[in-house]
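Submission checklist for the structure archive. All mandatory fields must be present; incomplete records are returned to the submitter.

[x] Identifier: Thioredoxin
[x] Organism: Gordonia hirsuta DSM 44140 = NBRC 16056
[x] Residue count: 112
[x] Sequence attached
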Amino acid sequence: MGNHAIDVTDATFASTVLESDKPVLVDFWGPRCGPCKMVAPVVEEIARDHAGTLTVAKVDVDANPMVARDLQIMAVPTLMVFSGGKPVTTMRGAKSKAAILRELAPVLNSDG
C-alpha cells in the first residue's frame, strides 16, 4: 500500500479496511475541519513510520457519508483502529503522535 495514507471511499472501505490482513488506522476527516488539518501530517508521519506493519487510510466524511453513518462518526477528526476487520479503538478530536501511537501499540505489537 506504500508509505503514505491512502484515500478510502464508501465503495472501497470494506476491501481496504475490513478485509486488510494488517491493522488499519482510519482518519475520518472533513475539508472544512481545522483540527483535521492539524492531525493530517501526524497521520502521514505514522503511515511512513509503520509502512510495513500498518495500513493508514483517510475517509473524507463529506464525500463518503455512508461509512461515516455506519460507524456513527459524529464529529471529525475521528481516528479508528481496525484489526481483523473489527474496530478496536476510537480516538475523537485532534491527538498528538504520542497519543495515537499509545492507542496503536496493542495492535502493532501483536502477532495477529
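[x] Structure attached
Curator remark: The chain has a mean pLDDT of 94. The longest strand covers residues 86-92.
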